[in-house]
Amino acid sequence: MAEPLSAQRPVPLAESELYFVIARYLSEGWCRRAAQVLAQELEQCQLLRKRLHWEGNQHNRNHEELVLSSKHVAPDHLLQICQARGKRKKKEIPPSISRVASLFGAGRQSLLLTAKGDLI
What we know:
By secondary structure, the chain is mostly helical. The chain has helices at 5-8, 13-27, 32-44, 63-69, 77-92, and strands at residues 51-52, 58-59. The chain has five helices and two strands. It has a two-stranded antiparallel ribbon with strand order 1-2. The radius of gyration is 18 Å and the shape is elongated. The N and C termini lie far apart (39 Å).
């Protein structure tokens, strides 16, 4: 069996959490099979956040263990993050066209643009 991706290079925490919230989002929507495949891939590649043993040793987790230990992360957590960023952005820079808010905005309408005009 090939060496897990996480053994080849450390997985940044933000990247691991992003994979997890994507799988959580897919698990309650129209793409449940995709969520299952993603969860299997995350476990196989050891991309999920590890848990610390009481002695400080790290242990791999499966998707279900992470779901159970992260009950505060709802299936729509990723959607909530996107919506919250969109609302914050709308307050900083009003949209060119009212009532049109998209995650795909570009230039001045990009969700990655700060009030100062810099990209995050």
